[in-house]
Amino acid sequence: MHGYDFALILGFLALVLLPAPWLGRFFYRVMEGQRTWLSPVLGPLERGCYRLSGVHEHSEHSWQRYLLALLAFNLVGFLLLFAVLLLQGVLPLNPQGLPGQEWTLAFNTAVSFVTNTNWQAYSGEASLSYLSQMVGLTVQNFVSAATGIAVLVALCRGIARRSASSVGNFWVDMTRATLYGLLPLSIALALFLVWQGVPQTFAQYVGAHTLQGADQVIPLGPAASQIAIKQLGTNGGGFFGVNSAHPFENPTAWANLFEMAAILLIPAALVFTFGHYVKDLRQSRAIIACMLVLLSVGFATSLWAELQPNPALASAQIEQTAPLEGKESRLGTTASVLWATATTAASNGSVNAMHDSLNPLSGMVALANMMVGEVIFGGVGAGLYGMLLNVLIAVFLAGLMIGRTPEYLGKKLQAREVQLLVATLLVMPVAVLVLAAIASVLPAAVASVSNPGPHGFSQLLYAYTSAGANNGSAFGGFTANTPLHNLLLSLGMLIGRFGYIIPVLALAGSLAAKKTVAQGSDSFPTHGPLFVTLLTVTILLVGGLTFLPTLALGPIAEHLSMGF
């Protein structure tokens, strides 16, 4: 490693962590309708949105009504995006004359972007018109991220409120998250990316004659605007097929750094938003410490693995160098590994290197980051409400160990809350293990695997883990665009998204209705090093006991077979 590598790591951490407390407080004030420095500009626009849509700003919903509004909004968004993708060939802003997508692919794409997964079984520049990219995908990038923030805020209110029958107003929460949070940050990042050389144009693709005498088509389009929100909203869907490995999506070292930091910026900030809701920032510091420990262990393991020479390459000239297969030489190993760790620790899924070429241990870290439920920062909103589920499970386990009724911040966890927590523990096993098991015994599904042995199993496992975790990254050797995989992966994405949202909102309603009991000296503290350790162990044990056998069949077996 060189000085540049250390500077990159420090710069990444600084861009993620330094703004987080301020941005977290900003999101809290925005979501609670308090005045911010953007209120004079965006306040009239916000109120105009409510008048046009008939929303009463100060009317709140029970958790059931909140959930129904969320499901209805997402269903309408899915139907509109599905229609746009099917009818793309007859819609405007299609200078290349691209036809509509085949129906199972359109269904998969619509589910993918509505669930904030952004799994792409197609190449963007070869398959989608400018209208589909903007009106379809980019819009869903905003509203799916805003939906995650809304669910998180409802859970925060449930924990913080006393004897309340409501958890907020979904329409108001989604509007504020988009208007004050996601939109201004995306505009700023998009302008920065345009400055760095990312295209933002409606011009047709450009033809070129190469030095070798071949004709080449250079794709263009309104890329910067989609790339900004795909990173900030932890969406990850690339404008171009190879995502942020493409020089038009990620043209410079500065673009690479800011795009990478944008993945974790809002998830880190929302940890502090939670602290403001419960009026105890010590809780935020404990949670973010756990996230940083897990992120650091994963990154260190991946970086060590990627810096090792491949023992299968016996040549003396190659033996002492780290392999660059699947990586952009202009970015290098450290930038590739840091991005791979961040994008799978969050439910982002964008890539600046090909994960199919990762060392087996690096691939295992990427899989493990997703298998624990995308809680190591995780998606916008979704990561923290997933982490809070683990916090409540850790508190429950602590209560069992000390013989007390478990409680968190004055709210007792009783039978209903424990039942809802258990329901969330089934989401990832069903979405990943059950669906992957079905795919692994169907010849039409197995035909999509391009490698024999453990790596081939890892390709299939990675695809269904990515879908269930709403991540969207993939091992590129896996042929995903088949009717069977399109439908099975869509089911996995729906389970991974709404299998958490429904019990989380029910949990929010149940906790909001409870009275807060005074915390005494015998209450288990949830903000110190002991609890951080317990929380970390809980996350690793739940994920490890569930998925270790599959990891042993895939990346672990592949690593051992390489002769390290």
Measured on Cα atoms, how large is the radius of gyration?
A: 23 Å
**Globular, elongated, flat, extended or rod-shaped: what is the shape?**
globular
User: Distance N terminus to C terminus?
Assistant: 21 Å
* Largest sheet composition: 2 strands, antiparallel
- The computed structural class is mainly alpha
Give me the number of helical elements.
21
Strand content: under 5%
Mean pLDDT: 92
Strand elements, count: 4
Helix coverage percent of residues?
55-70%
Low-confidence segments, given as residue ranges, are none
Please provide a written account of the structure.
The structure is a single chain. It is built from 21 helices and four strands. A hairpin with a 5-residue loop joins strand 1 and strand 2. 64% of the residues lie in helices and 2% in strands. The protein is an all-alpha fold and 564 residues long. The chain has helices at 3-17, 20-31, 39-53, 63-86, 103-114, 124-127, 130-160, 170-196, 223-232, 253-277, 281-306, 316-319, 332-345, 360-371, 382-402, 415-425, 427-440, 443-446, 453-468, 483-513, 529-561, and strands at 206-209, 215-218, 407-408, 411-412. The strands form two sheets. Strands 1-2 form a two-stranded antiparallel sheet. Strands 3-4 form a two-stranded antiparallel sheet.
